[in-house]
Amino acid sequence: MTPSGDTQLPARPHVPLSASDLLVNARGEPAVGHALEGEIPSADRIDLLCAFVRWNGLRLLLSQLRGHMERGRELRVITTTYTGSTERRALDTLVEMGAKVKVSYETRSTRLHAKAWLFHRETGFSTAYIGSSNLTQWALVDGVEWNVRLSQVTAPDILEKFQATFNTYWEEADFESYNPARDGDRFDRAIASTFEADTLLIAALDVIPYPHQTEILERLTVERERHNRFRSLIVAATGTGKTIVAALDYRRLREQMGNPSLLFVAHRKELLGQSMAAFRQVLRDGAFGELYVDGHRPDEWRHVFASVQSLDQLDLAKLPPAAFDVVIVDEFHHAAADTYRRLLDHLRPKILLGLTATPERADGQSILGWFDGRIAIELRLWEALERGLLCPFHYFGLHDNTDLSHLTWSRRGYEVSELENLYTHDNARARLIANAIQNKVADPRRMRALGFCVSIAHAEFMAREFSGMGLPSAAVSSRSTREERDDALRKLRSRDINVLFAVDLFNEGVDVPEIDTVLFLRPTESATVFLQQLGRGLRQSYGKSCLTVLDFIGYANQKFRFDQRYRALTQTTRAGVVREIENGFPYLPAGCKIQLDRVAQSLILENLKRAIGGSFVSFVRELRDIGKDVTLGEFLRETGVALDELYRNTDWTWTRLRREVGLPTALPGPREGQLSKALSRLLHLDDGTRLALLRHLLSRDIPPATATLRESDRRVLLGLHFTLWGSNEPRTSLDASMAELWAHPQILSEILELLQILEDQSQHVTLPLESGGTWEAVPLSVHAAYSLDEILTAFGEMTLERPHRIREGTIFNKETNSDLFFVTLEKTEDRYSPTTMYKDYAISSELFHWESQSVTSQTSATGQRYIDHRQRGTNVLLFVRRTRNVANRTAPYLFLGLADYVSHERERPIAFVWRLRRPMPADFFRESKVAAG
Q1: Which residue, of 157, 378, 550, 813, has the greatest Cβ tally within 10 A?
Q2: Inter-axis angle of helices 598-613 and 615-626, to 10 degrees?
Q3: Global pTM?
Q4: How far is CA 90 from the centre of its chain?
Q5: CA angle 653, 657, 659 (to 5 degrees)
Q6: Alpha-carbon distance 463 to 455, whole Å?
Q7: Which of 515, 580, 505, 502 shows the shortest CA–CA distance to 548?
Q8: Which residue, 558, 563, 536, 561, is CA-closest to 547?
Q9: Which of 412, 456, 444 is nearest to 516 (CA)?
Q10: Looking at residues 505-532, what average pLDDT do you find?
């Protein structure tokens, strides 16, 4: 008997089940289609991932696939409508046979270029085909195609990764279940459509946010529900769907507030029309909103999409300040202009939402005053690149032989006049830049480049030099008229000029998708400005495969911070930047590349290692330069120092820093050194309830009498004790531990300042585990981060009398009748390990794949308890972290809450799928899943 119960053994595949091979449709070997045909009969399940599915390819395998389905076996297919290549007849036939089909309806681009089959066999002889062949006749029979056939026997880790990635894709919202009766017309429209950016059809389908949009929406929830901040600025690159996010946010507000009045402000009629159409699509209301622009006047004044020019003509005395509950301002970087300022100073909405790609203006005016000086949400560059929302970039860091180390330096950076003088008297540098373009750009006379200069004189100098070298160029600046700027952009688009040199003018929302080259011709320390300027070239455009970025780097002042831009590009820590540079930036989004020439790499690494290795001295200098007594929070804001940078070394503390500068600080107590070393172990705290309790208890003049506290509160203090003193520190009682903390008022004060900052910086809404009963004494909140000690004390597993450690990654807690699973996603110290990366991972925001201990079998008492936990009345709780260590500290676990059994397979270990009762936060899901984007 076969595993599925068939009485006749199926024919063996052409390539032995235990072997791997490369198939190239060559003479003397089976064609790819024929090899696939031979795999199907013996497969228990089949997964197919391919961008294009066509009838003439499917029909070649139809008989075998139909037999597979008639034997009651599963076939899952993921495909796309990209380029209109997939044919409806093929999908309809697959569904008719019983296959499960999911489709991405994105027609402008696709992240799915993979072509792969996975043939699951319960015998342990699964096989996979990964290569270039879509499900078309050309690919399976006639084409010059390369496909690797892999066996579970020889490449088990690769097949495991295949299954993990496929399962993640299967659960993504991008890929939607296809039912011909329900979705056929939609599929036909997607195949036939030529996408128009300003056209939105009102469909009977909900708009589902992309993952990056979900993350923005969750951050808005944190801003409002946790921090009581109702004025929020969203910064995200053009093309990332900020208007859709605003519409989705308004849809949520409408559920919470009834039918709130809305004012949507933009400066162009085209934007207003597109925005109103987007809101109608999201709200599924074709009559939503009224225009106030170009002669259109609202009748009801309830939901208004207005141009700032029309509003400027309005008598504000007749408009009550509270007339609109929600005010959304698109391209908020314009808000410093008088027309916007007049309006915003008058209105008093309950919710103010600003949308922009460029928060820093060329004229230096700040737009952050309306948002308490802070940006609420900033979309990471990686997110947009991984989603395919932006064009990939190839960045080249090139040494330019200039010496900036002797130039005057202040907290604002280099003196502009000195940079200008250096750059405008250096013809050799201009020639070096031109030569670099010749070396890196395929055809400089076909490029459309934007060069960022230090000043107007520098821009004009570069335009003259380049034009003189035969590369037509122009300079634009704030002195240029609107007509001159528009004319320059028109000439750039038509390639009448190849380079447009500017100062910071094009930081702002000038949309030139055709730009394919960006030149950084001045040192830019601000990561925000760097990303704004980079973003001018990241818009997708027909015929543009990638953005070429040339960054010219000289000998920098020791205080210049290279880490800012590379942290922004690589989404890593300061120390991580060093590793990235030394290893050649191996972990970039698909299609992106960063290359530094030998001299530039040496200069940057020297700068980074100096800044990272001896930064406490610089902290002392920066605190002294402030010239007044400040709080820890004020110091961080004034200097731009991150909390984890200040506490990077265990002997670096705010107390020590204040003493070094001579600011008032209590004298050190006898155990201050040990307490100081523990402060960095508090930096993960983000549980709102725990933070509030600790601030309340530690603010008292005398230590709390722990015997009078609730058990849950006492366990919080016990967790603090182990954080401060460790599990090996003898203590007669918790009261004695707290008394010793109070004997160090300077450390107690620093902890209180830390707790407030941690609350202000928290990025998740933490939720109650459950109310009362079993969980009453367990002081944990879902979606909060905890150390292992804090978790064990919360469950009563660790006390002063009974310090406790776990070794296997699981523990059964008798008090709550619960299995606690502690999961580290990256199992090795190396960032990438192909043999351990795909054991535990998020399949979706609700589904989590987890492997038991290697000795656990399905029939064991432990295995049965996991499988039947609902029937037995036991609980399963998941605590997950990405890596063991972060910034030289033991990484905390994020508490994902209660989970329920979904399925299991295999033995020793057992592979489980659990369903979380509360979806994990979007940002954590992004880090926990196998597939990017």
Answers
A1: 550
A2: 70
A3: 0.77
A4: 36
A5: 120
A6: 12
A7: 515
A8: 536
A9: 444
A10: 76
Instruction: Tell me how far the alpha carbon of residue 831 is from its chain's centroid.
Output: 18
Percent of the chain with pLDDT over 70: 88
Q: What is residue 139's predicted lDDT score, i.e. its pLDDT?
A: 44
Do 211-379 and 396-613 fold alike per CATH? yes
Backbone angles phi, psi at 672, to 5 degrees: -60, -40
Would the pLDDT of 847 be above 50?
yes
Q: Which two tokens stand for residue 729?
A: 């520190």
- Average model confidence (pLDDT) for the chain? 84
CATH H-level superfamily of 211-379? P-loop containing nucleotide triphosphate hydrolases (3.40.50.300)
Backbone angles phi, psi at 111, to 5 degrees: -85, -15
Helix (H, G, I), strand (E, B) or coil at 141: helix
Let me know how long the chain is: 933
- Give me 208's structure tokens: 């589902």
The span from the CA of 496 to the CA of 445, in Å, is: 9
The tokens for 53 are 């599915």
CATH class of 806-928: mainly beta
Cβ–Cβ under 8 Å, residues 110 and 79: no
Q: How many other C-beta atoms can be found within 10 angstroms of the C-beta atom of residue 396?
A: 18
Note the pLDDT tens digit of each residue in 124-168: 899 998 876 656 544 444 445 677 888 898 888 888 888 888 998
Q: Are 383 and 926 in contact (CB under 8 A)?
A: yes
Q: Among all chains, which residue has been given the structure tokens 């600011």?
A: 663
Fold of the domain built from segment(s) 21-192? Endonuclease; Chain A (3.30.870)
CA neighbor of 532 nearest in space, from 280, 405, 357 = 357
> What is the CATH number assigned to the segment(s) 396-613?
3.40.50.300
DSSP single-letter state for residue 290? E
CB atoms within 10 A of CB 324: 25
Residue 99 has pLDDT above 60, yes or no: yes
Residue 363 has what DSSP assignment? T
Strand-pairing partners, residue 232, are 353
- CA 655 → CA 620, 639, 642, 742, 754, distances in Å? 12, 17, 16, 15, 12
Q: For residue 853, which of 895, 806, 804, 886 has the smallest C-alpha distance?
A: 806
Distance CA 809, CA 822 (A): 5
Residue type, 53: V
Q: How far apart are the first and last CA of the chain?
A: 43
Determine the Cα angle at 131 with ends 130 and 133, to 5°: 115
DSSP tag of 920:
P
For strand 21-23 and strand 147-151, is the pairing parallel, antiparallel, or unpaired? antiparallel
Chain centre to alpha carbon of residue 529: 19
Angle, helix 55-70 to helix 32-39, in steps of 10 degrees: 10
User: 781-794 pLDDT, tens per residue?
Assistant: 999 999 999 999 99
Going by C-beta distance under 8 Å and a sequence separation of 6 or more, which residues neighbour residue 876? 818, 819, 821, 866, 869, 898, 899, 900, 901, 914
Output the DSSP codes for 716-747.
HHHHHHHHHH-TTS--S-HHHHHHHHHT-HHH
SS3 call for 183: helix
The token pair at 671 is: 């155990």
329 φ/ψ angles, rounded to the nearest 5 degrees? -115, 115
Dist. CA 762–CA 781, nearest whole Å: 13
Q: Label residue 637 by pLDDT band (50, 70, 90).
A: confident
869/860 Cα distance (integer angstroms):
14
H or E element in which residue 767 lies:
strand 767-768
Q: Locate 875 and state its tokens.
A: 């609980």
* Helices 416-423 + 456-468 axis angle, to 10: 10
Domain boundaries along the sequence of the chain: 21-192, 211-379, 396-613, 616-768, 806-928
Any idea which of 102-106, 614-618, 778-782, 888-892 has the lowest mean pLDDT? 614-618
Q: If phi over 0 gives left and psi between -120 and 50 gives alpha, with beta otherwise, what is residue 87?
A: beta
